[in-house]
């Protein structure tokens, strides 16, 4: 058992399947009381029934108050896991502003709104834990989908800002940055996902394992694919070399589309 989450009151958004469901199951197995959130009410209820949790379906941007009430007035851990992967149109193609707006709203602003709702109580109590499911795309980038890459950078930046701003006041923040994970989102990622992500894809349960190791070790950055640390270092140390390598990957993808 991880002592930090035993008896904790936990909310997991986007938990009807994939990474979110794996996180909800792991928290429940560790003795936490879990609210399962998902846009799909049936999926949320199914996971909640499985783990003995509580289903609070709906938009992840606006469920903090209802989830807090369901948990008896307190949220100890909030997992901002809900996300979308959208193609907003490449330069020169028609711009899908709706896709960009949805990506910003779900991948970034839902995290901002949740933190805004949670922080007053956490700061008063001197403790709370915010878990942001980002992506390796938030540290690096992803070919073929500008909205996903850009907004995941935003999600990572917000998690980083939360940590540096409030860690001395007891707020713990973790940013999970996996590459490919065998979920519905990976299945929907098309040929770019087939090329870049599927060869090294892991199971959602592996992501949960990585998070709980990070909680035990009190680490901000959670890398279920450890090699991402090397890529991140290379990107920072030699950006032009890294960009040239990514461009070669882009050309390979274009040649096989």
Rg computed from alpha carbons, rounded to a whole number of angstroms: 18 Å
Number of strands: 7
Number of helices: 10
User: Which descriptor suits the 3D outline?
Assistant: globular
Structural class per helix/strand content?
alpha/beta
Poorly predicted runs of 5 or more residues: none
Give helix and strand order, one letter per element, not per position: EHEHEHEHEHEHHHEHH
Could you characterize what this model shows?
The chain is of the alpha/beta class and 257 residues long. It is 51% helix and 11% strand. The protein has 10 helices and 7 strands. The protein has helices at 18-29, 41-51, 64-70, 97-125, 146-166, 184-187, 190-196, 204-217, 228-237, 239-255; strands at 9-12, 33-36, 54-55, 77-80, 128-133, 171-176, 221-222. The protein is globular, with a radius of gyration of 18 Å. The N and C termini lie far apart (47 Å).
Features:
single chain, 257 residues, alpha/beta, seven-stranded parallel beta sheet, 10 helices, 11% strand
Summarize the structure in short:
The protein has 257 residues and is of the alpha/beta class.
């Amino acid at each position: 058992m991880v002592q930090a989450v035993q008896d904790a009151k936990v909310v997991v958004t986007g938990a009807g399947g994939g990474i979110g469901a794996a996180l909800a199951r792991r928290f429940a197995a560790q003795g936490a009381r879990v609210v399962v959130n998902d846009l799909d009410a049936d999926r949320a209820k199914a996971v909640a029934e499985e783990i003995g949790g509580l289903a609070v379906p709906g938009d992840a941007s606006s469920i903090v108050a209802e989830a807090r009430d369901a948990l008896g007035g307190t949220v100890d851990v909030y997992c901002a896991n809900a996300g979308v992967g959208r193609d907003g149109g490449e330069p020169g193609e028609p711009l899908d502003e709706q896709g960009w707006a949805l990506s910003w709203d779900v991948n970034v602003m839902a995290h901002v709104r949740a933190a805004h709702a949670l922080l007053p109580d956490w700061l008063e109590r001197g403790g709370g834990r915010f878990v942001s499911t980002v992506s390796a795309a938030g540290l690096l980038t992803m070919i073929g989908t500008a909205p996903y890459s850009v907004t995941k950078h935003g999600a990572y930046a917000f998690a980083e800002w939360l940590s540096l701003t409030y860690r001395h006041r007891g707020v713990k923040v973790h940013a999970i940055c996996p590459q490919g994970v065998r979920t519905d989102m990976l299945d929907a990622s098309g040929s770019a996902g087939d090329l870049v992500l599927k060869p090294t894809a892991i199971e959602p349960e592996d992501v949960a394992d990585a998070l709980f190791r990070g909680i035990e070790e009190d680490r901000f950055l959670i890398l279920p694919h450890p090699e991402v640390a090397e890529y991140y270092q290379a990107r920072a140390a030699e950006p032009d070399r890294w960009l040239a390598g990514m461009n070669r990957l882009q050309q390979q993808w274009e040649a096989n589309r």
